[in-house]
Amino acid sequence: MTNTVHKKATFDAYRKEAERLLLWCVLQRAKPLSSLTHEDWLAYQAFLGNPLPRDRWVSEQSRRHPRNDPRWRPFAGALSASSQRQAGIILTSMFAWLVSAGYLAGNPLSLSRQRGRARAPRIERYFDDELWLEVKATIDAMPRETPRERERYLRLRWLFTLLYVCGLRISEIAENNMGSFFCRRDRDGSERWWLEILGKGSKVRLVPATNELMNELGRYRRELSFPALPVPGESTPLLLPIGGKPKAMSRGGIHDIIKAVFAMTAERIELKGPQFVHVAHRVSQASAHWLRHTAGSHMANNSVDLRHVRDNLGHASISTTSGYLHAPDDTRHNDTEDKHRANW
Question: N or C: which terminal CB in the chain sees fewer CB atoms within 10 Å?
């Protein structure tokens, strides 16, 4: 089922980019896709950064609407540099397939790839320690007088702890459940909690579930009248809608929750004075994936072994023998436990 979801997400991403380009070819350039030149591609790249006219291409107030809604538009706004690069990757793959299928004689995007200069392997979309404190302060300032307010507050603490401590993707939160937590004893006889994640590309990885993470999970579950600790095979989603309905939240729903916190954080920062406007703008542009980068950056900066960071984030395949090699896993758990905390 999860593999099907991943395939659908990939299909949706490819369809979105193909549709945008096809509409642009017809409406802006008045030519078929087969007549697209390299100069057209350069113009389209500029268009992605500023799709005009806005009333034709961009939805009002940057809202998403169903495809059958007359308010639907191909864009919710100008694409960021990273989104433009992703569009280029997808469309390059699409054109390569069209060439191999005999529909096109050549790939108009290939020249861009040849001319493209190498980029420094540098992660910039993350929160430094100070901005991470600002995000947490926003959550801690949430009202929690009524049961509904308290549930929302504890859900936010749980969500942001899960994103930060485990470095999970939104899709991994939406598509995994609490039955994926399990406990086992390490070589010294201590009990350690782990979270087994089925992630991108249907790859499985084990993420250390630190004491801090399990405490946050316990608070959240008790608020929902669940036992503090999950049991193997439990189907409860990792994140629930307000009201405790036992159904998984969509990636879009989780994304909106996170973006709302970033927007409130940006507003608070901006109130500090004109000199903080650029910082507030940076926070307002952040996405959930920034928390994954933040997790990796903070772990590395706090001297967590880079091999452990790699395995925590799932940047490498898990060896088929990892189920037998508990000692390296136990060391990784200890390293993560000792040096990587959300520190509410």
Answer: N
**Do 197 and 191 touch, CB atoms closer than 8 A?**
no
pLDDT digits (tens, 9 = 90+) for 163-178: 999 999 999 999 999 9
- Whether this prediction's pTM lies above 0.70 is answered by no
Task: Give the per-residue pLDDT at 111.
Answer: 57
Contact 224, 151 (CB under 8 A): yes
* Residues across the chain: 344
How far out from the chain centre does Cα 22 lie? 27
End-to-end CA distance of the chain: 35
* 41-66 as b/e: b if 16+ CB within 10 A: beebbebbeebeeeeebbbeeeeeee
- The alpha helices in 50-109, defined as continuous H runs, are 54-57, 81-100
How far is it, in rounded angstroms, from Cα 132 to Cα 297? 12
**Residue type at 335?**
D
CA-wise closest residue to 48 among 2, 99, 109, 4? 109
pLDDT per residue as tens digits for the range 334-343: 878 888 888 8
**Is pLDDT above 70 for 318?**
no
